[in-house]
Write a structure and sequence with these properties.
The protein contains 17 helices and 13 strands. The protein has 562 residues and is of the alpha+beta class. The longest helix is centred in the last third of the chain and has 42 residues.
Length: 562
């Protein structure tokens, strides 16, 4: 259960990639850190870097990067469209796995203290790392930008949290904090007008716009009883936005920070900007992501746009991402490569998908080789995946069958269930081989001393249990897929009923084959209570599968008729 945090420093240089490479070299020099993405912007003259790792490794890498950026970047010469105040303008830490926001905030404070003390750079804490909530908002801290901070830093209320209260003309100041996952997202417009882009940004951003008399941009600002300006909130919660003109692309954009994509997802932000732009006679032509995005955000977007078309959402992960990219025009300004922009894909270990990444011939050749893995367990999982795939195919064909238009949602739901089973079974193809390798590695451990013997014995027991649980999961998942197969045999497109029948044969083979692996692996496991329980459960699943397969085949053969 390794703790992982992400770090997304923004450096005030987006044009000299040799300089950026020197900074990222510092990050990559730290063991326990993986550099995920480097996203430069010429117009903003800013580069967003994303890396992930264990907490101590991440703050070491961040410190080295801040140090190097301070050496290489001269803020007195910096020009760019994006608000900024330092060579390393902002450096957020984001909890990713097995770590709380509170724990992440402590690491941000440690990093800020070290930067201020050792590098003598003024440091401001923000978001969860900042105890004073009056100065926890990044835009409030950065107000006045680099040019205004020579005076601002002298104000008592703007004394840095760490480092000297003297503004460094070359390096500027740095903001370090801990926050939730933020998606930086720009939406492209068919206008060059910054003012019109700003109007749309004010329409949608949570902070909205200042109220003025007569709703005129030149009208007098309306204030409350305390003299503070009143505002009209925008339509999107957890969204910050401004409009700007990007000379590099020759268009204006709405530049957005989506601070909680569970509240306002990317696809909702995109559609709302489309609506508000349309109201002002402007069209959205596409959009771009800055940095990385979670996989779920892309899958949810794909499903959203398919549902708007009344099309089945039970399609592959790859197809959902393609729909999301095309619907939001994420490839308008340049290619959108999922393997480089989706955080889970960047973290994925290729060794975990060695088998399923092979083509069919290579997979068959690997199975037929003299190596004992992949064996019956992996093949059972793959056969089960094929059965679930056939059922999903029937559901998708049925969802857009002529004359069945009003049933698209019914079949979409079945297809989505089939895809879930298929995806899990594909994952288990490699997991079964990994289980075998765990056992081999455990048997290879040294056993010279009593302590080594105890460690080896426990490792063998843990690996054996894992090797029992994986094929049992294959059994459970393949059996679950039979609900989809049965439904498609009964109510699916009658022209594809034989495909449902083949799916049932595959599911039964997967269950029975996996059960053989459960039993043969369980034979060498000492915990007899566990063995008796899982074998009894496996036998029950096998019996139900055989009975259900018989029922499905009777339906299929009756419909075929010959």
């Amino acid at each position: 259960m390794q703790q992982l945090i992400e770090c997304v420093p923004n450096f005030s240089e987006g044009r000299d990639m040799n300089l950026i490479k020197l900074i990222t070299n510092e990050i990559e020099s730290v063991e326990g850190v993986k550099l995920l993405n480097v996203d430069p912007g010429k117009a903003t003259n800013r580069t967003v870097v994303t890396f992930v790792g264990t907490p101590e490794a991440v703050i070491e890498a961040a410190f080295l990067a801040i140090q190097k950026a301070g050496e290489l970047i001269d803020m007195s010469q910096h020009k760019g469209e994006h608000p900024r105040m330092g060579a390393t303008d902002v450096c957020p830490l984001i909890p990713i796995a097995n770590i709380s926001m509170e724990e992440t905030a402590v690491y941000a404070q440690k990093l800020g203290e070290r930067v201020g003390k050792e590098l003598k750079i003024p440091v401001y804490l923000y978001e969860a790392a900042q105890k004073n909530k009056e100065r926890s908002n990044l835009s409030v801290i950065r107000a006045g930008e680099y040019e205004g901070f020579f005076k601002k830093i002298k104000l008592p209320e703007w004394k840095p949290d760490f480092g000297p209260a003297e503004f460094d003309a070359k390096r500027g100041a740095t903001v370090i904090g801990a926050r939730d996952f933020l998606v930086a997202y720009n939406i492209n417009l068919n206008t060059t007008s910054t003012r019109r882009a700003n109007s749309i940004a004010f329409d949608v951003r949570e902070a909205g716009r200042v109220m003025r008399e007569g709703n005129s941009i030149n009208g007098k600002i309306i204030t409350d009883e305390n003299g503070n300006p009143k505002s009209v909130p925008g339509t999107l919660k957890s969204v910050k936005a401004i409009g700007w003109y990007i000379e590099e692309y020759g268009v204006a954009q709405i530049s957005m920070n989506l601070t909680n994509i569970n509240i306002t997802p990317v696809h909702i932000a995109f559609d709302e900007v489309c609506n508000k732009a349309h109201d002002r006679g402007i069209r959205v032509t596409g959009s771009e992501l800055v940095g990385l995005i979670p996989l779920k955000a892309m899958l949810d977007a794909g499903k959203y746009f398919l549902e708007k078309q009344q099309r089945s959402i039970g399609v592959s992960e790859k197809e959902l991402i393609k729909i999301a990219v095309k619907s939001m025009g994420l490839d308008e300004l340049g290619p959108f490569k999922p393997e480089e922009r989706i955080i889970e894909y960047m973290l994925r270990d290729k060794a975990d998908s060695k088998l399923v990444s092979m083509d069919l011939v290579a997979f068959a050749d690997e199975t037929a080789s003299e190596s004992p893995a992949p064996g019956g367990g992996s093949i059972s999982a793959y056969v089960g995946a094929l059965g679930a795939s056939l059922a999903t195919m029937v559901a998708n064909l049925s969802s857009h069958k002529k004359g069945w238009d009003d049933r698209w949602k019914e079949f979409s739901d079945w297809a989505e269930k089939g895809q879930q089973c298929k995806s899990e079974l594909i994952r288990l193809v490699d997991a079964d081989t990994q289980a075998f390798n765990k056992i081999m590695n455990a048997f290879g451990l040294p056993k010279a001393t009593d302590e080594e013997k105890a460690i080896r014995k426990q490792a063998i027991a843990d690996a054996t249990k894992f090797a029992i649980e994986i094929p049992f999961k294959v059994m459970e998942t393949a059996y679950s897929s039979m609900a989809v197969i049965k439904a498609m045999a009964e109510i699916g497109n009658p022209n594809s009923v034989s495909d449902a029948g083949v799916g049932a044969l595959c599911a039964r083979s997967a269950v029975m084959g996996a059960f053989m692996n459960v039993r043969i692996n369980a034979a060498g496991y000492d915990d007899k209570a566990f063995v008796n329980d899982i074998v009894a459960k496996g036998k029950a699943i096998e019996d139900k599968t055989i009975a259900l397969e018989k029922e499905i085949l009777e339906t299929v053969n009756k419909k075929i008729g010959l």
